[in-house]
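The freezer alarm interrupted the setup, so I double-checked each line after restarting. Inputs confirmed:
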Amino acid sequence: MSTRSLAKDQPASFAFNADYIAQAKRVIAKYPAGRQASAVIPLLDLAQRQEGWVTKPAIEEIAKILDMAPIRVLEVATFYTMFNLAPVGKTHVQICTSLPCWLRGSNDVVRACKEKLGIGMGEMTPDGSFSLGELECAGACVNAPVAQIGDDYFEDLDHASTGKLLDAFKRGEKPKAGPVIKRDSSAPAGDAITLTENPAPPQKQDFAAAKAAFEEAKAEAAAKAAAPKA
Ligand code: FES
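Predicted 3D structure, all chains:
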């Protein structure tokens, strides 16, 4: 796991803009009075969407808004890898390297990123267009290995497909999120291996014949009952 600490160079101040203040108020209003600290994650997310990363002044401002000790906000910001603690590129590429993704080849995905972008983990391209980071379990292990690019997950990656994906981003395209292989969401990969044949159609019922057989059996039983006992 990468070290999670605040960047050395920090801006002098932070303030939510009018739009984000309105959004922050809506989030805080969802929680009962005295429980506004529950809004810490959404507010950190808003600060990151506004600035591109979570700054120290933003942490202090959020602590003030939510009436929390700044260290409590810092703890949350440094725990969750979704929060960038340093400036990131316009396209921020994060690769999940936790165990299931590693077992399914995340090393190859990381290698492809380093080759294509020419940067290492935690670095940004000189033009600021791409940055590369590590992600703890993205919660999509069934589609491992996984990359998060912006708000989207790209799944079932390997070295070749990661290269193609990054080429598409470099061309300014917005590739479709989700599995990059033939797979529907997290359904089994490849073609179906069960229920592959159509079941035989149901037999047509001959109700007239069934009714006749029933009437015959009924008459037989009645005749038997009426016959004199020996
Ligand atoms: S380990 Fe990568 S998504 Fe869970």
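Quick read of the result. Residues 207-226 form the longest helix (20 residues).
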